[in-house]
Amino acid sequence: MGRVTSSAYEWSTRHSVLTNARRTAALVNVLSEEDTGPEAVAEVLRAYGERGPLTLTEAEVSALREVARELRTVFAADGTDAAAEALNQLLARTPGALRLSAHQGGTPWHPHLDSSDEAPWGEWFLASSCLALMVLVWDQQRPPGGVCAADRCTRVYLAQGSGMARRYCSRRCATRSRVAAHRARS
């Protein structure tokens, strides 16, 4: 039986379902800005564990942006059934069968849903994001997140934990909305 090394544990933590879902939300948000270029996308990818040189082209960013628009439908879904249906429609478009990969021994084993370890960025983003969001819907039996309810904010967020349903992407948006509502009543 193989022993889990500390580097494998660290890698697994950086590439957990929750981390992949957070990366999905971060990429959807950065790609929602039309002027986002390859370096800004590469910065998000690096922040969520991608290693090595990341030289994305404008065409690759365009493909990632199209996937981000499609993934936004999962975050914007009104309820668990709608989120599951949106995910099922996106999952039907993933070209690969569910498989385990260790990238020729360069990483611990982990699931992939794209066509190969060298899949184009857009295909990888769709497959890895759908896989992470699917597990969250399955595990929590609720939508994986939402779109910020603040005026003029379109950012997506993950809904984690128990308690009241989250409506805002950040405390800043929540506070601004409360202050605006208070001023409107005054």
From TrEMBL:
- Top-level taxonomic group: Bacteria
The record's listing under InterPro entries reads: ABATE, ABATE_dom_sf, Znf_CGNR
The chain positions of domain Zinc finger CGNR read: 147-185
Q: Name one Pfam family in it.
A: ABATE
Q: What SUPFAM superfamilies has UniProt attached to this entry?
A: Jann2411-like
Q: What is this protein called?
A: CGNR zinc finger domain-containing protein
